[in-house]
Amino acid sequence: MLVLVLAMLVVLSLVAGTVAAITSRLVAQSQQRAQYMQDEVDIASTRATILYLMMSQRVTVRGITVDNLVSFGEDGVREIQSPADLDSSLPIGNEIVPDGRVYRGMGNARFSLQDDHGLFGVNWSSPARLDRLLANGGRAQEPAETLLNRLLDYQDEDDLYRLNSAEADAYRKAGLARPTNRPLTTPMELTRVMGWKAALDFLSPAEINDAISVDTVSMVNVNTASARVLLTLAGMDQEKVDRVMAFRKLQPFLTDVSFNQFLGRMQAPEEPLTVYPAASGTLKLWSSSGGQVGLIHWKMTPIDEREGRPWREDYELIQSKGPNQDAPVYSVRSRLFAQQMDARN
């Protein structure tokens, strides 16, 4: 009898342990699902808030304003009092800067903005600038003129060959998908253009999206361009790029002339510079607790009311790798970010 009782106690202990383990696992899974739901709400709230700010706030040479203040240089900063105040583009100091820096969004959400003028406009850049971009790969590539000709033939509607280029029959013989004969949709589509996949193999997919724009932009924003893009300008080296990046942390360049004077350089005629953000760019959103990164390419369209909103989302994709975890996280000084929605309410 004693042996039977002891056996039953052992069985009950095992059952209790199993139930406790299952219960603990179910609780952990429930907490993970709740955190995932809250993260999704935080990201959606942050996305909506950023788009609202972009369509409703002024843009200065520094970025998107977040309040009703306006700067008049030495005359200081004050609240906007008349429509004439809107003409000022001088920096205030609390703008959201579209240079890829990381900002704290709602709850655990993080985001970064990058305007297209701060990216390498592959459709409107000179062969010399493309050569300097590809030089980051550290080895010889096909001539930039050849790559640009192939890019043009990939996108145009005819079957006429440019010099050293390729059309549908050449792609078929090489076992590649034929050209779409329409403008590129995303930067990653570049790898479908003959010769470009090998030319860009020194960049990861995330780096391609972070460095290249397929939008119709030709300007280079010296206030938001990354180090990789700044190095494509004539006469730039790493020492000059570091100087520019350090200066931008203190204040933005107000004119392209001041940028050139700061570096003591002559501007090449084929590289138009600007200090203003473009009306298009990318928005990245992710959670500080982990997970994938959502990337949206947006374009402001204030005069186009067909979609019922003053912006257009050209494409959206997911990146598996998040931004550098060691990067500083900035706060947005706006009341809109003071409250957050709770998925449990």
For this entry, what is the oligomeric state of its chains? Answer: single chain
Q: From the alpha carbons, calculate the radius of gyration and give it in angstroms.
A: 26 Å
Largest beta sheet: strand ordering: 11-10-9-4-3-12
> Roughly what fraction of the amino acids lie in strands?
15-25%
Low-confidence sequence ranges: 340-345
Please report the distance between the alpha carbons of the first and last residues.
56 Å
Roughly what is the average pLDDT, rounded to an integer? 85
Q: What characteristic shape results from the CA principal axes?
A: globular
Assign a percent range to the helix content: 25-40%
Major beta-sheet overview: 6 strands, mixed
Nutshell version of this structure?
With 345 residues, the chain is α/β, with parallel strands linked by helices.
Q: Characteristics of this structure?
A:
12 strands, two-stranded antiparallel sheet, 345 residues, 9 helices, alpha/beta, disordered C terminus
Structure commentary:
By secondary structure, the chain is of the alpha/beta class. 34% of the residues lie in helices and 15% in strands. The strands form four sheets. A six-stranded mixed sheet has the order 11-10-9-4-3-12, with helices on both faces. The protein has a two-stranded antiparallel ribbon with strand order 1-2. The longest helix has 55 residues, at 2-56. The protein is globular. The protein starts with a helix and ends in a 14-residue tail after the last strand.
